[in-house]
Amino acid sequence: MSLAILKKSLHIALAVLLTFSYSTTAQQQTQTPSSAKTVIAHRGASAYAPENTLPAFRLAFDMGADFIEYDVQVTRDKQLVILHDQTLERTTNVEEVFPARGRIAAGDKSGKKHWYIYDFTLAEIRRLDAGSWFGVKYKDTPIPTFKETLDIARGRAGHLIELKVPDEYNARGVDMERLTLAELERYNRATPKSQTGSPIIIQSFNARSLQKIAAELKSPLPLHLLTSSDDKDGWLTREGLAKVKTFCVGISPHKDSLAKNSDIVTWAHELGLRVTPYTFTTKSQESQPLRTDISRFLYTLKADGVITDNPDVAVKARTE
Questions:
Q1: d(Cα 216, Cα 178) in Å, to the nearest integer?
Q2: Distance between CA atoms of 183 and 96, rounded to whole angstroms?
Q3: Alpha helix locations (H) across the chain?
Q4: Does residue 284 surpass a pLDDT of 60?
Q5: Domain boundaries defined on the chain
Q6: Structural fold of domain 3-85+139-319
Q7: Does pTM top 0.85 for this prediction?
């Protein structure tokens, strides 16, 4: 076995052990966060390949990422697909394929049409090219399904799954949380012990959604609360983090929040919460500034991992 393969195997083993330590409910979780530093590929290796696509995920694996982070949305026929935006026009050719399907949302005063993902069936979405916007070599790359994404990472990396705007889907009669857990159950991935080599963590900006997963749906899966740079709901205080601890095992704050107040990491660790800030990225060919920044967050600010568009840079920062 080569040294590179051995190192990768060790990191996967650490990721699995980490998730097994979360096998009880979030309310019962009291462990001290692991010292292992986790590299999480944001929408895959999205600095180098079209975000939230199988090529981006494959590249992330090759670069040594421990987890892939991606966004789950729901189609009109209630199928789970991987896409960040609620609309399709930024990262696909939907305007060419379905020119008449754009619409102006109620209350939108801009007058601009959008192509909303929940207006399209899975079959229609699979006709779209989600790669050409990034580069010619990715022409005809499709939007992946949730199942395809679960399958491609099996034994290669873990999943950090973000549920997008669950309240909006709930208002449309789609129980996004229950639907996602049902899909995981369908593919025998709904418990930590069923996820050999590919641990699963669910995250969201929506605390109510995560509380529902933990308390009402009683999922044993570890949960992370995402927070914005302004932390307008006050989660990143001692009191707020104590509340987070009742339904989550970790937080994924904006990196600026930790830069402004490094005590957040200390407070979180005192409660046994892991801290994985986002998003570390660069388009520059010179990666040293990003590597230095990642190293500072991992080893000076003591974050447990980073969510990055450049997993190769983060792996080098961790190694060094």
A1: 10
A2: 31
A3: 3-20, 54-63, 94-97, 122-125, 146-153, 166-171, 176-186, 207-211, 238-244, 255-260, 263-270, 288-295, 311-319
A4: yes
A5: 3-85+139-319
A6: TIM Barrel (3.20.20)
A7: yes
